[in-house]
Amino acid sequence: MQYGRYLAKVREADICIEDHGIPYLSVQFAYDEGMSQGLGAYTLDGAFVFRFMLALGVDSLKRAEGKSCWVEADHSNVYSISPLHKKDGPPFVIK
After folding, report:
1. CA atoms of 24 and 21, how far apart (whole Å)
2. Beta strands 78-82 and 23-31: pairing type?
3. Is the alpha carbon torsion for 1, 4, 95, 93 positive or negative?
4. pLDDT at position 3, please?
5. Residues 6 or more apart whose Cβ sits within 8 Å of residue 81
6. pLDDT tens digits, one per residue of 77-92
7. Parallel, antiparallel, or unpaired for β 36-41 and 68-73?
8. What is the phi/psi pair of residue 73, to 5°?
């Protein structure tokens, strides 16, 4: 996968705790091209989760599952998540 903008569907979204006790947002994307990619963001805070849910237009992480969105990514990183239509909300840019 090269850096680009890809149509994706959220397969799974959850908050997990890794083996050192650090909470993180775990998201699995399935791309239309048949590939998949995960997002695991450490040093999780409420604003991070809120921006992710806002980009998908949901009020719960479980409701994110099955939602389609645009993902800007390369083979190792997800850089932003955007709703299908700009009118549906702001993109979530991951820094």
Report:
1. 10
2. unpaired
3. negative
4. 84
5. 52, 55, 56, 69, 70, 71, 72, 91, 92, 94
6. 999 999 999 888 889 9
7. unpaired
8. -160, 165
Tokens of 48: 């991070």
- Distance separating alpha carbons of residues 88 and 79, to the nearest angstrom: 19
Residue 47 — φ and ψ, nearest 5°?
-65, -35
Q: Residue 1: its pLDDT value, please? A: 64
pLDDT of residue 63: 96
20 burial level (CB within 10 Å; 0-12, 13-18, 19+): exposed
Nearest to residue 33, comparing CAs of 10, 8, 2, 11?
8
Distance CA 18, CA 38 (A): 15
> 32-47 burial, b for 16+ CB within 10 Å, e for fewer?
eeeeebebebeebeee
pLDDT tens-place string over residues 35-72: 999 998 767 888 889 999 999 999 999 999 999 999 99
